[in-house]
Amino acid sequence: MKRIFTTPGVHPYDEVLWERRDVVMTNWRDGSINFEQRGVEFPQSWSVNAANIVTTKYFRGAVGTPQREWSLKQLVDRVVGVYTKTAVEHGYFATEEDAEIFDHELKHALVNQIFSFNSPVWFNVGTASPQQVSACFILAVDDQMESILDWYKEEGVIFKGGSGSGVNLSRIRSSKELLSSGGTASGPVSFMRGADASAGTIKSGGATRRAAKMVVLDVDHPDIEEFIETKAREEDKVRALRDAGFDMDLGGKDIVSVQYQNANNSVRVSDEFMNAVEKGERFGLRARLTGEVIETVEAKDLFRKMAKAAWECADPGVQYDDTINDWHTSPETGRITASNPCSEYLHLDNSSCNLASINLLKFLNDDDSFDIASFVKVTELVITAMDVSITFADFPTQKIDETTRAYRQLGIGYANLGALLMATGHAYDSDGGRAVAGAITSLMTGVSYRRSAELAAVVGPYDGYARNADAHKRVMRKHSEANDGLRTIDAIDGAIHREASKQWAECLKLGDKNGYRNAQASLLAPTGTIGLMMDCDTTGIEPDLALVKFKKLVGGGSMQIVNQTIPRALRQLGYQEEQVEAIVEYIAQNSHVVDAPGLKREHYEVFDCAMGERAIAPMGHVRMMAAAQPFLSGAISKTVNLPESATIEDIEQVYMEGWKLGLKALAVYRDNCKVGQPLSVAGKKSDEKAAPAEPAVQVVEISRPTRRRMPNQRPSTTTRFTVGGAKGYMTASSYPDDGLGEVFLKMSKQGSTLAGVMDAFSVAISIGLQYGVPLETYVGKFVNMRFDPAGMTDDPDVRMAASVMDYIFRRLALDHLPYDDRAALGIFSASERSAQQRGEDPAPIHTDEVIAELATSAPIEEQPQPRPEAVAVAAPERVGSLESHQGRTADAPLCMTCGTKMRPAGSCYVCEGCGSTSGCS
Questions:
Q1: Which of 49, 265, 340, 514 is catalytic?
Q2: Among residues 136, 313, 342, 911, which one is catalytic?
Q3: How many Cα atoms sit within 13 Å of 733 on the Cβ side?
């Protein structure tokens, strides 16, 4: 072992500045405190969000007892202590000094957010619980009832522990084949119902994360069309039940009647099938037991059905079977038939994936060069630690235990690629960006397998290596040849590629001599929770989600900031400090770079994001995946996002190009394709009359605005409201003839600071209204403003509010603005949202009579309150300032733990509020 960052004789903790903090988490429904631990200890450099997530999710021991962990040091000591002790006991180190270096370097890397193990390591290692270190598993199901029932049981055990699983059901006979008794088989889709119900039940039973599962079916299975259309049909069912008055909202009491919603579905396509699609040929569907063709179909028609279903509901994805197995290191043991839920881990049945991810931005030097030497050493360190973990790990079934110990599959990956590319002035969708990504991925995997060969010399190759030696060496040569073909563009990727070439050469030499310790080494996971733990701006291989984000502050609250990668990128591109400040200020106000002062148009692409004014094109995502895939043992967790306007043909093109570019797996998501999604973005007003042409020269007389004072007697409405448990009153007064002219707010005792601030704010708004400032201007500025108190309200029209200001101006808009103006701002009443969900136009319901009735109706406090359970499960209208700025929705579910809208992380989702994920990171 070699030292990387530490100093002999100095403990790594002593080189870090530590501080004490209080972690207090409030309930999103009523504002009550649901977690509190004061005086926790973290490095000063850690963000509030990272410290909160580690405290609430990873610290072990009952809160309020002496056994409860209270310092990051304790957590890291607990985990690293087991790794070091196990490595010493199993002969990994030549000397005691090597063991100390291993121990110190791991601790330094973890407390400095250089890399992180996946969540199960933090949950379990060093505790009294089973030492489970794997996040996701691949199971196997045979065409026997006993095997099918074992599948249900094994998935249940895995879900109970908060992990996920994947399975291929293609061995099960189709509904078009006969049983030995003479009856007809049920088919795999029927058995999916039972597994789906099981996953849904266990998911709601209090596990650490929602159940995640993948179901795969081969494209030549006779039931493939039924499998493809399964989830799309369920979406039709949701529409019909909602139209009939059932509660089909997210978390609604009737949503449980919808089936097949707890799994990601993927079709395993072959080269034979894809070639048939290209050539317009027919394709045979084969019996499961005999392999004979029992039906032929038009390949293009079947391919289109896949794309159409994905267009309607995002499922199924595709997995490219021949590509996957062409890169398989252990084919003599068995084919790769399935993946984990997020599709990045692909290997033998009854195996598991043990993941860790490196924070790439930590290796970017001040001069914008990449610290290659440190990256190589950290990769060696992480691979060594990951291999040690398999030695002490526990597994949920005996079969998984045997396979994992025999093949020792690892999944090293990285996070923050998108931030690294932006910081170095590379556009994500560019040849330069792809060259950097390819070079880094090649270097990481080359070092990993080289270290695996070194470990094999010390503690032996994996048990299954002997029978698979030729195949494993062949795949190593394929990786090396792909590296030789990598085309570099800039100095940064050129230097990384040169080191990668050296590492692959050494890897092949040592592998021929020693064999390899691990059947797999690398993949790219979604890095959801651990990405937040490492304070990463971007997850996995993803680009930046947006240029503006929200930062939690010590003591509560949050502030909107421009991503800190942007100033660095601007300086790297040659802009002076005053130009940087002006551009950053423009981005803070507009959330995009279009027309930013002084920014060259050729540099716009550097700041393209996953969503927003300049969203990266779908094929940009596919090409980035293709740049990294040849250098990965596994695959990539990533969803290719398409705009709502995308066509079925667009999805067909993505699936076809993914195959041609050598991807192993691919999933798509068309914006707003889900019926039950939390938000639909309001479109701009249409059919507006064109403005008359202006004269060539126009003299405009600018007059000073005059104040239109309110009469002594005026109609008013008083609204009592609750936002995140905080109560208040709002009185809104109108001119007798037209328009809002006065607002008064009360939220605290008279004489308090808050009461004074609210009085002053009310006066400022009222005077502005009376001087002619349109209400919609205020609404546009204050809606989505985010600060505490925030959360659930008692208003059926505004279920969630980002702050008191967010609620107040949504309520004022609903009460005083016409429908068209509100629609342009994305503000709708409960009845209007229901009409939209039924596919109806809400505008016709706003007749003069209805508006008059609303104007004279009782204030909100006199209206019937919604049932408590309805409030708890309703999807929020508000999803955050980010989406409002970006002009589109980051389509994602609500967090089942804290109610915050999640954000994409690979093909899964992560909650930035509490760290919960929908997948396996």
A1: 340
A2: 342
A3: 18
**Rounded (10°) angle between helices 72-89 and 96-111:** 150
Q: State residue 645 phi and psi, 5-degree precision.
A: -80, -5
Instruction: Determine the Cα–Cα distance for residues 442 and 482; give it in Å rounded to an integer.
Output: 9
Angle between helices 48-57 and 72-89 (to 10 degrees): 60
For the chain (921 residues), the mean pLDDT of every run of 10, in chain order, is: 95 97 76 86 95 94 94 98 97 96 98 96 93 92 93 86 87 87 81 78 48 90 95 78 70 67 89 98 95 96 97 94 98 97 96 95 95 98 98 95 97 97 97 98 98 97 98 98 96 97 98 98 94 93 87 64 89 95 92 94 95 90 98 96 92 98 95 54 36 39 71 88 86 86 82 81 90 89 83 83 89 89 82 69 52 41 36 33 48 64 76 73 57
168 catalytic per annotation: no
Domain spans in the chain, listed from the N-terminal domain onward: 1-112, 547-599, 716-866
Asked if 248 contacts 676 with a C-beta cutoff of 8 angstroms, the reply is yes
CB-based contacts of 279, cutoff 8 Å, min separation 6: none
Q: What is the pLDDT of residues 598-643, one digit of tens each?
A: 999 999 999 999 888 899 999 999 999 999 999 999 999 998 989 8
Tokens 């003591």, located at residue: 555
Provide the sign of the torsion angle of the four alpha carbons 647, 652, 654, 657, taken in this order: negative
- 609 in catalytic set: no
Q: Per-residue DSSP letters for 751-774?
A: TSHHHHHHHHHHHHHHHHHHTT--
Per the annotation, the verdict on 914 as an active-site residue is no
Q: Are strands 317-320 and 665-670 parallel, antiparallel or unpaired?
A: antiparallel
Report how far residue 487's alpha carbon sits from residue 544's, in angstroms, rounded to the nearest whole number. 24
- CA-based end-to-end distance of the chain: 28
Pick the catalytic residue from 105, 154, 235, 344: 344
- pTM equals 0.79
Res 447: pLDDT: 98
